[in-house]
Sequence to fold (246 residues):
Amino acid sequence: MAIEVFNRREVKYMLNDDDKAALLSIIGDYMDCDPFNKDGKTYSISNLYLDTDSDELIRKSLEKPDFKEKIRLRSYGMVGLGDKVFLESKKKFNGLVNKRRTNFILRDAYRYFEDGTIPENPVQENGKRLKMNMQVMKEIDYIMHFYRLKPKVFIAYERYAFFEKNNSDFRLTIDTNIQSRRSDLRLDSPAYGKQLLQEGQWLMEAKAFKAFPLWFTHFLAERRLFKTSFSKYGTEYREHQKSCLK
Fold:
């Protein structure tokens, strides 16, 4: 069963190709690969970020307040209208991230964004009935109506993901080929758009509720890697603002 509620600390680092290769050469001793990473390859994630007409949520987030939140619709791999996706709320308070999400069928998500209809007893394309977390749905629905949110940005990327052996608390993700666009805002469309990373860059995120393991802190020290502030949506918004000024 997919986890629907997460509470954790998240720290980001920017890697180059050599850093990434060095990490992958040792990570098998400490971590297991995500099942989505078949044959050691990355898997794709696509997101629709929701915001107001004036981009209020991302503008507030870039001011680095103690509390910030975002709503997004996420899919893993290429999906069709009858496939399962995830509607998520992500809140951050004093460095601790709380993520809550519920299952959704893509066509129902589009309808919900258009007229606010929450589906009853949704059925997937394969005939399986989809179970929604209605408590999470109510929380997200309140935020959606309070801000009058709508899809604003598509962001997709390729990901490696790892879980520490015998310790599901610690997780690492490494993302590349981060693409964004403000048109064709559909998860059933192919991933394309403006690149948000330079060639050879990889965004690593370490995620844990407790302290990071010793082997990982040693790796950071040896490679002289320091935490960075990088928001995919925030970077997209800054680039979008620059293009508007040209």
